[in-house]
Amino acid sequence: MMNKLMRASRLQSAPLFRAATCLALGLCALALPTAQALAQAGNPIRVVVPFNPGGGSDLFARLVAPGLGKALNENVIVENRAGAGGIIGTETVIRSRPEDKMLLVADSAVYTIVPALYPNLQYKRSDLVPVANLAMFGNVLVVAANSRFKTFQDVLAAARKAPGTLTIGSAGTGSITHLTAEKLMEDAKIKLVHVPYKGSGPAITDTAGGHLDMVFTGLPSVLELLHAGKLRALAIATPERSPDAPDVPTISESGVPGFTSMISQGLFAPPNTPPKTVAAINAAVVAFMRQPDTQATLRKMMVAPVDQSAEAYKQWLDKESTDWAALIKSAKVHVE
């Protein structure tokens, strides 16, 4: 079905459009696809995750795949194609043919950050078509539970008193946690020592153990450690306080006005996907994300569901892309 939709100009007659509209309006209940329907569908839709199993993108892909399968009345499988920081899987989807029926679930960095970091990249930002914003959450600045820093203002004061002495970890050079640290240094006019790791896990562990002064990371990845008293959150880079951590002030209200750093998990399509196809898939995904069971799952994952059109998501991604590209240039961030 999806390969036909990719080529179709009159989507209104396609089963996907009817199913998505029906779901969005709450006027029908679609059953699981029958064996006969799956046989007629031919190749399954492949939702490619450009990272290893078990990560955030993988979890969201496996959450959305069953709902997408019901809406499209097709078999949907999740396929991990990790490598090169998400580039390999992303390029696989971009180079795919309509009959390959591929979509991509990845964090927003593949669209907003990676093209600016790698000048010789084989794909352009415009080669990815944003379809749906699956979830958003903010980066939070954490320190060890026994750290001398009790507030975000303590960090600012210490960094200004002794520039270049406090350490801040990241998931790696060019990661959003690294760029958030660079953004903080630029906006707050402070100097920290960046310590890159291979992934957020080791950086979080070393922060909890007192080997690093601090680290930025996504709130869901440390909320349990915060509740267990092994880490302390000083401030979060969201426009407003998070309902999952209402006692944690925003960075904006703590001395750096307007500071934000958000992470999104998104669904993307290959280039030249017809706009009506994008809108129909978006409607199906949004309808699935509105379901009470899905929202309960998202709350357990400690992320907020997003009810957003494909065009609104693209506008947000494009602004993020412009902002991160400017920071990468001004901070002279380079990756090997």
Structural summary, described in words:
Strands 1, 2, 3, 4, 5, 6, 7, 8, 9 and 10 form a 10-stranded mixed beta sheet that branches. This protein is 43% helix and 18% strand. Residues 3-41 have low confidence and may be disordered. The chain has 336 residues and is α/β, with parallel strands linked by helices. It has helices at 2-7, 15-25, 35-41, 56-72, 87-94, 109-112, 114-117, 152-161, 176-188, 200-208, 219-227, 275-290, 292-300, 310-330; strands spanning 45-49, 76-80, 102-107, 129-144, 167-170, 193-196, 214-218, 231-236, 262-269, 304-305.
Give the structure's gist in a few sentences:
With 336 residues, the protein is of the alpha/beta class. The protein has 14 helices and ten strands.
Low-confidence stretches are 3-41
What class, by secondary structure content? alpha/beta
Q: Note the run of SSEs as H and E.
A: HHHEHEHEHHEHEHEHEHEEHHEH
Number of strands: 10
Sheet-strand content, in percent, reads 15-25%
Helix percent band = 40-55%
CA radius of gyration is 21 Å
What is the end-to-end distance?
41 Å
Distinct helical segment count: 14
Q: What is the mean predicted local confidence, pLDDT?
A: 87
Describe the biggest sheet?
A: 10 strands, mixed
Assembly type of the shown chains? single chain
CA-based shape: globular
